[in-house]
């Protein structure tokens, strides 16, 4: 099931050549109508080796690393140990970030936990809305990661590697499955703007196509200015003028093609048609005027404010239009200090909208085939960090909490646990590779058979060290 | 997999080579060409060089070992375990095992069978053997001789020479990245002399834009960028290195010297400023300023980054996997990896934090001015010193007054209304004055002195003020001067140890010294630990079989679209044995024989008949050699991202053709940098000449590269890139249609058409076509342009405001004396031309 290797001429270019007899006009509409990037609508994996439970993924990235101890992993024992030294048996040899070489002291969970749902799952009181959908989600309390600084940790979470240049998961999935979106990219990224304190930088590397063809890279949808770069016409050029120019360009390109027979020209023609359609389809996508007051209220957003909540609503609209991988970033979870002051604000910005997304997808019958993931890039220490002002927590890679929902993920489940102090995953520890393997599994892809030759290796999203589908969370 | 049936040749890049024989099993099996690719891809993962994961103690990459384990019986396929296991239907016997998801198809099995039948001989991997130079008749171009030999063998015929216009366009694109002027095209078309083309080649090779064009590919492989890469992705000073690369190509610096300066420009016996700027190569890696980043962690990342860079840029070896374990396919071991890294253990480089400003890189004028400012400071300082004895006496007297209670610091008087900061300073001074001068610490002594000079002593204050002003001026000027991170060698070398599984926290691994990869021939350093200079000398030594091949292979790619070995960053077992190994070897040898003369190789290639062929393919060629691996024709491809920009600017006349200088910031969408932090940044769009520079000078922000460059596949340069994607995306259409750079280019081009193209629309259209495409328009093209003029013209006559808006896009002044409505209409014609596939394609 290895996808075919790349070739200097692209596959779609060859399609163009092969279909020449059909006529380039027909060809152009055939190709561009199916997929934004004139890729084959179908991915390289065909037929799928596994039943496809998820048709698309919405990944909610809480950049900075939310504290599991104030969100989803209650630790009464840690509260009891508050102020006491962390047992050295736990911390010895552990890599730490800003606490390296500091005294390590237990720091009690700073917010109360409440029980939610049929299973009486304990979740921080800061997240009542997520609590209200707990029967639809699966909480993993035993996630771990390899990296401990933001940048490498994001790279690892997004690409399965800490070395730049690997494709991100959205690119892999579009490569494997193709896209069902008409007039939209198959991989869309949205980063919310907010009043945050010290938002994490993110890098375009996190949605890069790496060594895969560029058409699989994530396209950032912006909250301000043109939603997609250069989407708007230049000043003094209306849609009619634009159309006339594109028509002229395509006529001349077609004449040129008839003379030289270069299959890339057919693709070029299709791309101009697609670009023109995108100029209409993207504004239609981002125009929330058709959404009901009840929907806006459920998400808690003001259309066009670029907030995480508005992006959650846009995510649903993208999902409806067949976009394969949708990734949202909220950038303000790096609470080395001021945990008590900051965390409630960030919870307020995300809790309601995250839950609304689940409810909205469910009421539209889309939760059954949409996989929703909520995760940071790492967890935080049960130890206090007090060297940066009022107390917070340092980066931590031995334990983090996250949740998944939809697309055959078991509902209302808590999976895995950490030790009494919340220091390390204990029961059912999971790795980022396992998470990727599970996601691919739900999409109908065998992770160990999904590879591309790169620098001599069969490179996989799930790496070379081995990964296991987390069977225990599948419904 | 239906896709496979549709496009069978897409799946077999290794045998595409012999496109005509795809699917056939050669009569005489060659291990390197036919067998190694199969064994490497299907077997070496468990039966290859990495002992750590070897199964059943069997290795198939070494004949003796394979024989010892009874893998096959030479000459007797039927008795060979290897074939029996491949053919087995038992899931616990069959090879490769089902869980690897790898299969050996019927053709591959036949190859192995015939190979064993013919004696199962091995060859050393082709790229580790010294290149052999095929004999070529005197006065013949080796490229043509060796391509022809291969075509004859395959039964393919070369294509006719391209027309003159195509030739000059191709040559300009490949050697300068800029379109030729219409006058030059016309002159070349008229030039009937037999050496017309050769003279053209010489002229273009001497263009100062040659170095710019050649630099692009090199900057990709060394991952040159203006920012550090990780997390905050802050700026760093390296652009003088970019100019050094341009200059080196323009001066045709020998490639061996080019190499020495980059890896060891600080250690050369004749090290100078130039060679030190070259040594910035060692500083081009990714670095971090992230809080909580552990030095040991990043020290390890930097070591691996450097090893990968040398592997990619010079050796054509993929080394990255050996960070954690021995290479699975090539003989490159984990020890090789860390030993190669140890060559760089002396390079001064903070593991974490802000990079230093770097070495000053001044031109003569800057040198002179800085020296003058230094002299002024020195002069002022001397004058201050001349007053110091007198001032010291005055201070002692003043202090005595304080001790005797005569003097009180005014800030501390009860009725003083001094600012809080001044009061704090005065208190500290008073506390120091309460001690005897012998009791005071150095800081206290300084505080007292500073206070005295600032507040008490007035007689010599003007002299001191002159000094302060001189120092300030010098500092301000110094801040504006070009600086470059360069390599400095530290006698305190970092300890390098083999990190088990690449884990930097594991300190149990063996400490290693610098050493060359064990499987390649190299000098004996007689027990002495070799230096970076030794490494650099070895890289460009005759002994090393890889560097010359790697470099000429990449050069070939620039002139034909694909390397002679397709995988430009991997000449190892998993790369592609070149379909025409004799040609690659001949070029590599010629390169070394001619003293690593880059321009000689470039000239040899572009003068060849092979290069001059038409790129229009016949159906037969497309069927038999769809990827043009045999060069029975030329290739067509869209030009690199930077050149897409350069072409539009050049055609419009906006291009500022200056060479070198600080990176520039052309128009970029607002808020594009809003997700950068520590600190947040705004993008300060350049104005004036800096706005219209060539693409290679655009500010290279690794985490957020300029979106127009990104859309055309410019790499972020976080890692070394030998092969750029060459995609064809709707975003490219949006860039060419709507990016203000291209809209401005269109309206400035339109003004040029109106002022230089005569007064009749037919003449103007002809002028426009000649300038943009270097040819006359065809009748149907004229019709399309005229129709567009009519429809767009009607729109702007009805809406002159729209015309005014369009023709004021960008910073260029709106030309006086042109009718805005007419200019707007012609802007559309110009815009259409700049958007054509033909405009951005080299053919």
Strand order of the largest sheet of chain A: 6-5-7-1-8-11-4-12
Number of strands of chain A: 16
> Radius of gyration of chain A, Cα only, in angstroms?
23 Å
- Poorly predicted runs of chain B are 1-22
- The total count of helices of chain A amounts to 13
The most extensive interface, with participating residues per chain, is: A-B, 107 and 117 residues
Strand content of chain A: 15-25%
Number of helices of chain B: 36
**Main β-sheet of chain B: number of strands, strand sense, barrel status?**
2 strands, antiparallel
State the CATH class of the largest domain in chain A. Alpha Beta
The level of helicity of chain B is: 40-55%
List keywords for this structure.
heterodimer; A: 475 residues; alpha/beta; Alkaline Phosphatase, subunit A; 2 domains; eight-stranded mixed sheet; two-stranded antiparallel ribbon; 13 helices; disordered N terminus; B: 843 residues; mainly alpha; 36 helices; 4 strands; 48% helix
Helices and strands in order, then pairings?
The complex is a heterodimer of chains A (475) and B (843).
Chain A: H1 11-18, H2 24-34, E1 56-62, H3 76-80, H4 88-91, E2 113-116, E3 121-124, H5 128-132, E4 137-143, H6 150-159, H7 169-177, E5 187-191, E6 219-220, H8 239-260, H9 263-286, H10 293-299, H11 308-320, E7 325-330, H12 339-363, E8 370-375, E9 379-385, E10 392-396, E11 400-405, E12 413-415, E13 417-418, E14 425-427, H13 432-442, E15 452-454, E16 457-459
Parallel strand pairs in A: 1-7, 1-8, 4-12, 5-6, 5-7
Antiparallel strand pairs in A: 2-3, 4-11, 8-11, 9-10, 13-14, 15-16
Helix pairs in contact in A: 1-9, 2-9, 8-9, 11-12
Chain B: H1 2-6, H2 13-16, H3 31-42, H4 44-47, H5 63-68, H6 81-87, H7 106-117, H8 142-154, H9 164-175, H10 182-190, H11 196-205, H12 209-221, H13 239-250, H14 255-264, H15 273-278, H16 295-315, H17 334-342, E1 359-360, H18 364-386, H19 388-403, H20 420-433, H21 442-456, H22 461-480, E2 483-484, H23 532-539, H24 547-560, H25 581-593, H26 598-607, H27 609-612, H28 619-624, E3 637-638, H29 641-652, H30 707-711, H31 730-738, H32 740-756, H33 761-773, H34 779-798, H35 800-806, H36 820-835, E4 841-842
Helix pairs in contact in B: 3-7, 8-25, 9-10, 9-11, 11-26, 12-13, 14-23, 16-17, 18-22, 20-21, 24-25, 24-26, 29-32, 31-32, 32-33, 32-36, 33-36, 34-35, 34-36, 35-36
């Amino acid at each position: 099931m290895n996808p075919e290797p790349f070739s200097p001429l692209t596959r779609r270019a060859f399609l163009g050549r092969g279909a020449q007899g059909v006529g380039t006009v027909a060809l152009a509409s055939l190709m561009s109508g199916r997929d934004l990037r004139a890729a084959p609508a179908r991915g390289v994996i065909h037929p799928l080796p596994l039943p496809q439970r998820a048709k698309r993924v919405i990944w909610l990235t809480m950049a900075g690393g939310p504290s599991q101890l104030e969100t989803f992993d209650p630790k009464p024992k840690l509260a009891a140990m508050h102020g006491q030294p962390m047992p050295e048996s736990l911390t010895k040899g552990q890599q730490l970030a800003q606490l390296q070489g500091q005294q390590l002291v237990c720091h009690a969970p700073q917010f109360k936990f409440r029980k939610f749902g049929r299973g009486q799952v304990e979740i921080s009181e800061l997240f009542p809305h997520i609590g209200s959908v707990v029967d639809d989600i699966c909480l993993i309390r035993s996630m771990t990661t390899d990296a401990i600084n933001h940048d490498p940790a994001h790279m690892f979470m997004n690409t399965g590697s800490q070395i730049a240049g690997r494709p991100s998961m959205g690119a892999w999935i579009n490569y494997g499955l193709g896209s069902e979106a008409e007039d939209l990219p198959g991989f869309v990224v949205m980063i919310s703007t907010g009043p945050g304190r010290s938002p994490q930088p993110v890098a375009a590397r996190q949605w890069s196509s790496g060594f895969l063809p560029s058409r699989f890279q994530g396209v950032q949808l912006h909250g301000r200015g043109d939603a997609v770069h250069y989407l708007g016409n230049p000043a003094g050029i209306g849609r009619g003028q634009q159309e006339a120019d594109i028509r002229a360009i395509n006529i001349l390109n077609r004449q040129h093609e008839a003379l030289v027979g270069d299959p890339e020209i057919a693709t070029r023609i299709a791309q101009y048609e697609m670009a023109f359609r995108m100029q209409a389809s993207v504004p239609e996508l981002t125009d929330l005027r058709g959404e009901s007051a009840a929907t806006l209220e459920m998400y808690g957003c003001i259309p066009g404010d670029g907030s995480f909540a508005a992006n959650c609503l846009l995510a649903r609209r993208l999902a409806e239009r067949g976009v394969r991988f949708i990734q949202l970033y909220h950038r303000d979870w790096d609470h080395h200090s001021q945990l008590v002051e900051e965390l409630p604000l960030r919870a307020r910005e995300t809790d309601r909208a995250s839950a609304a997304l689940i409810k909205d997808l469910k009421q539209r019958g889309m939760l059954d085939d949409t996989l929703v993931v909520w995760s940071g890039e790492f967890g935080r220490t049960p130890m206090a960090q007090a060297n940066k002002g009022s107390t917070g927590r340092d980066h931590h890679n031995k334990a983090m909490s996250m949740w998944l929902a939809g697309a055959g993920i078991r509902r209302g489940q808590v999976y895995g646990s950490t030790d009494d102090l919340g220091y390390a995953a204990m029961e059912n520890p999971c790795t980022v590779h396992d998470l990727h393997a599970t996601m691919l599994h739900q999409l109908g892809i065998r992770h160990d058979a999904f590879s591309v030759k790169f620098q001599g290796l069969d490179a996989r999203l799930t790496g070379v060290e081995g990964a296991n589908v987390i069977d225990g969370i599948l419904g | 997999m239906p896709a496979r049936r549709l496009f069978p040749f897409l799946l077999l890049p290794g045998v595409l080579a012999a496109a005509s024989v795809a699917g056939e099993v050669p009569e005489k099996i060659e291990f390197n060409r036919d067998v190694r690719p199969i064994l490497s891809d299907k077997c070496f993962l468990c039966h290859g060089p990495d002992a750590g994961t070897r199964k059943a103690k069997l290795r198939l990459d070494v004949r003796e070992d394979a024989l010892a384990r009874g893998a096959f019986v030479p000459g007797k396929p039927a008795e060979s375990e290897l074939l029996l296991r491949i053919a087995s239907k038992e899931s616990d016997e069959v090879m490769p095992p089902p869980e690897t998801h790898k299969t050996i198809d019927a053709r591959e099995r036949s190859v192995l069978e015939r190979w064993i039948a013919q004696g199962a001989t091995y060859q050393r991997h082709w790229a580790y053997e010294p290149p052999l130079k095929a004999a070529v008749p005197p006065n013949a171009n080796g490229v043509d001789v060796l391509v022809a030999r291969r075509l004859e063998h395959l039964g393919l015929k070369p294509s006719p020479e391209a027309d003159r216009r195509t030739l000059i366009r191709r040559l300009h694109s490949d050697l300068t990245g800029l379109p030729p002027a219409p006058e030059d095209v016309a002159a070349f078309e008229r030039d009937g002399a037999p050496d017309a083309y050769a003279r053209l080649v010489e002229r273009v090779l001497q263009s100062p834009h040659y170095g710019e064009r050649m630099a692009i590919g090199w900057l990709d492989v060394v991952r040159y960028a203006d920012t550090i890469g990780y997390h905050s992705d802050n700026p760093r000073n390296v652009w003088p290195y970019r100019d050094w690369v341009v200059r080196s190509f323009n001066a045709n610096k020998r490639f061996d010297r080019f190499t020495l300066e980059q890896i060891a420009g600080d250690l050369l016996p004749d090290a100078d400023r130039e060679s030190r700027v070259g040594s910035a190569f060692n500083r081009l890696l990714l670095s971090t300023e992230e809080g909580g980043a552990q030095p040991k962690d990043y020290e390890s990342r930097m070591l691996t980054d450097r090893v990968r860079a040398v592997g990619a840029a010079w050796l054509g070896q993929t080394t990255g996997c050996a960070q954690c374990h021995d290479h699975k396919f090539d003989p490159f071991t984990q020890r090789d990896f860390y030993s190669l890294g140890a060559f760089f253990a002396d390079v001064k480089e903070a593991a974490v934090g802000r990079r230093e400003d770097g070495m000053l890189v001044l031109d003569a004028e800057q040198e002179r001015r800085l020296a003058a400012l230094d002299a002024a400071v020195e002069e002022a300082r001397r004058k201050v010193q001349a007053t110091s004895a007198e001032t010291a006496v005055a201070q002692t007297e003043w202090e005595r007054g304080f001790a005797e209670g005569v003097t009180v610091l005014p800030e501390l008087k009860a009725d003083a209304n001094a600012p809080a900061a001044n009061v704090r300073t005065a208190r500290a001074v008073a506390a120091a004055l309460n001690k005897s001068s012998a009791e005071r610490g150095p800081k206290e002594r300084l505080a007292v002195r500073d206070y005295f000079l600032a507040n008490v002593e007035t007689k010599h204050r003007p002299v001191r003020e002159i000094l302060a002003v001189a120092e300030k001026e010098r500092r301000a000027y110094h801040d504006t001067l070009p600086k470059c991170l360069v390599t400095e060698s530290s006698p305190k070398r970092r300890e390098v140890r083999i990190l088990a599984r690449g884990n930097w926290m594991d300190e149990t691994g063996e400490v290693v010294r610098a050493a060359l990869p064990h499987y390649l021939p190299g000098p004996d350093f007689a027990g002495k630990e070799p230096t970076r200079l030794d490494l650099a000398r070895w890289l460009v030594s005759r002994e090393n079989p890889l560097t010359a091949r790697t470099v000429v292979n990449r050069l070939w790619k620039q002139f034909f679209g694909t390397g002679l070995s397709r995988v430009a960053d991997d000449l190892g077992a998993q790369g592609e044995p070149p379909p025409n190994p004799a040609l690659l070897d001949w070029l590599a040898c010629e390169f070394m024989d001619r003293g690593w003369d880059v321009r000689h190789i470039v000239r040899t290639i572009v003068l060849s008949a092979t290069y001059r062929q038409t790129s229009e393919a016949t159906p037969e060629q497309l069927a038999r050699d769809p990827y043009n691996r045999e060069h029975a024709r030329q290739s067509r491809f869209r030009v690199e991202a930077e050149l897409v920009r350069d072409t539009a600017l050049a055609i419009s006349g906006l291009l500022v053709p200056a060479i070198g200088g600080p990176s520039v910031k052309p128009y970029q969408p607002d808020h594009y940098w809003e997700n950068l932090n520590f600190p947040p940044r705004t993008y300060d769009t350049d104005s004036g000449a800096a706005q219209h520079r060539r693409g290679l000078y655009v500010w290279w922000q690794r985490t957020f590269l300029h979106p127009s460059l990104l859309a055309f596949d410019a790499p972020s340069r976080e890692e070394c890139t030998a092969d750029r994607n060459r995609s064809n995306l709707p975003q490219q259409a949006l860039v060419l249609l709507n990016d203000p750079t291209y809209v401005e280019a269109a309206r400035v081009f339109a003004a040029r058409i109106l002022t230089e193209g005569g007064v009749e629309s037919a003449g103007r259209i002809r002028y426009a076509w000649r300038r943009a495409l270097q040819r006359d328009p065809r009748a149907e093209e004229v019709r399309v342009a005229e129709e567009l003029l009519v429809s767009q013209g009607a729109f702007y006559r009805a809406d002159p405001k729209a015309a005014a808006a369009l023709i004021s896009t960008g910073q260029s002044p709106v030309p006086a004396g042109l009718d805005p409505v007419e200019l707007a209409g012609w802007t559309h014609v110009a815009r259409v031309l700049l958007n054509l596939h033909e405009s951005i394609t080299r053919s």
